[in-house]
Amino acid sequence: MKKHSRLYKMLSVFSALAITAPMFVISASASVNDSSVGNPNYISYNQDFYNSNSELCNTLIDSMENLNSEIDVEKYQLSINDIKKAMRTVSEISPELFYVSKTTYGLAIGSCVARVIPTYIYSNEQIVQMRSELESKTNEILAKIQPNMTDFQKAAIIHDEIVLNCEYSNSPDAQYTRTSVYDCIVNGYANCQGYASSMSYLLEKVGINSEIVESSQMNHIWNLAEIGGNYYHIDATFDDPTPDRYGFVSHKYFLLSDSAIKTSSDISVHYGFKTNNSCTGTAYDNSYYKNLNTKFCYSNNLFYAADNSNSGKNSKKLVAFNPETGYAEPVADISDKWYTNGGLSYWHDSFVSTDEYNGNIYFNLNNFVCKYNTANGTVTQVTNKINTSNYAYIYGMKVDNDGNFLADVKKSPLDDANIIKLNILPENKQEKLDIGFGKVNTDLLIPPKFLLGDINEDGNLSILDVTLLQMICTNSLDAKESQKLAADYNADGQIDVNDATALQIYISKNS
């Protein structure tokens, strides 16, 4: 009885004080100057604050996961601004709290917050259902991740799944905010906040550290991801073609250094941001895959994609490649043309998209879909040809979870999407096509042997190696892959003057 009396008295005090300290609105906005580094949940945002207020943040997370209507925070004696930071931090490191409004309410006593009263966008029944839908879609994506994959491969698959299955939209409606993992992964429409939250959410699921990056000047948000011990920028939003293109995904913004994302001439440079993790690694800034605009289809430690460009070594080819070793080899030829203006002209680029199903790689030509068999290197036609007499062609293709082929058939890549289901040929009617180059030469997949620092590959370390390393740093030596691997003497993922200095010190001490 005494306990109940004490509780009643405490609540009465709050009610009395609420007259002079009314309900206030807490906006979950944050300054780009807030520091952000890694946290125990893999997702990094405002970590200095989290470290100082981890109990509060975890209390908020647990309470909102349990859909509590009121959260007691009086003991933390924090200001309104601190609670704002806590709510924003929680929303970023726990993107699964998609059902909590970006604006919530609390009760203040003097200058400190006593209660946080979350605003849930949906009813409890809706939240339970939406959580289940998110879990189901998440599991579909994670099923594409194999245990032996590298972090690069996992991140590439996650990046492509997000971009290919979501369309950029910055227009909230009565039901969706367009800012959450649910909007992006389940509903398929999101703005940059939804893309970035989904990247962090899925990267966390596969054990990859990430950081949320903001630029108020750009009114934009994206990610860093830790791959191979170095952090790189990933902007899934900018890698999604606008307007949306069925079956196509850019990779220009996948794993960029600070320097590249700020200065590259062939991308929209990013500015006005600060990160806690520096992206000094340049391993992927100029990788071949930056030119590829189709899904990276994984099979036996290799990716397969179409090179749709009209110039370059692998122009208009289906290509097998491994960006982590620099390996790339064409496996099929694409000679089709996509005519326009009633057949009077055609597009310079091709419009081949790729997908994977049951270990096989599928890609469209202008009027049907082919299968590349990774086991024997053969290419076969697997669907009926569409009628192209009116100059309507396949401008993109996907394979759904049931193995159906869905194609975007229209007269121009600029037309609105027109998705149709293609008819699959019986196996005895699937004819082999004379466009394949055969099975991948697995001998080329073996990484070259090298000795760190041995640039001239004579088996010894000498001052000549230092000179050659300096030439690589200044781009005055056209180094082969094994020389580049040997040139990263301090094994930090980049080749620079620090490698030459470290090598010279080693030689001077051991000569």
UniProtKB/TrEMBL annotation:
Residues 448-511 form the Dockerin domain. It comes from Ruminococcus intestinalis. Residues 1-30 form the signal peptide. This is Dockerin domain-containing protein. Keywords: Signal. The keyword Signal applies. Pfam families: Dockerin_1, Transglut_core. InterPro entries: Dockerin_1_rpt (IPR002105), Dockerin_dom (IPR016134), Dockerin_dom_sf (IPR036439), Papain-like_cys_pep_sf (IPR038765), Transglutaminase-like (IPR002931). CDD domains: Dockerin_I (cd14256).
